[in-house]
Amino acid sequence: MPSPKRIGKIEFGLLSPKEIREMSVRKIIWADTYDDDGFPYPQGLMDLNLGVIDPGLRCKTCDQKASECPGHFGHIELAKPVIHVGYTRLIRKLLRVSCRACGRILLSPDEVEKVVGTDDDQTGDQISEKDVKKERICPHCGEQQLKINFEKPTMFSEVLVEDGRKVEHKLTPADIRARLEKIPDTDLISLGINPAVARPEWTILTVLPVPPVTMRPSIILENGQRSEDDLTHKLVDIIRINQRFKENQDAGAPQLIIEDLWELLQYHVTTYLDNEVAGCPPARHRSGRPLKTLSQRLKGKDGRFRGSLSGKRVNFSSRTVISPDPNISVTEVGVPLAVANEMTIPVRVTTYNIEDLKQIVRNGPGRPTVNAPCGANYVIRPDNRRLRLADGNQDTVADMIEPGWTVERQIRNGDVVLFNRQPSLHRMSIMAHRVKVMDGRTFRLNPAVCPPYNADFDGDEMNLHIPQTEEARAEAYILISVEENILSPRFGGPIIGGIHDHVSGIFMLTHGMRHFTKEEVLYLIRFTRIEHLPPAAKEVDGVELWSNKQVFSQILPPELNMVFRASSCKNCDTCKKELCERDAYVRIFDGKLESGTIDKKAIGAFDGQIVNRIIRQYGMRQAAEFIDDLTKLSIRAIMLDGFSFGIDDEDLSKTEYGQIEDVLNNAVLDVDRRIKIYEDGQLEPMPGRTVDETLEMQIMQVLGKARDQTGQIAGRHLGLGNSAVLMAESGARGSMLNLTQMAGCIGQQSVRGERIIRGYDDRTLPHFRKRDRGADAHGFIKHSYKGGLSPTEFFFHAIGGREGLVDTAVRTSQSGYLQRRMINALQDLKVAYDGTVRTTGGRIIQFQYGEDGTDPTKSAFGEPVDVKGIVESILKEEV
Amino acid sequence: MIDRGGLLMSTKLNVMKHIMVPEHIIMGEEEVKKLLSHYSITTEQLPKIFHDDPAVKAIGAKVDDVIRIVRISHTAGRAESYRLVIRRPKK
Question: Which of A48, A494, A521, A875 is the most exposed place for a label (fewest CB within 10 A)?
Answer without folding.
Answer: A875
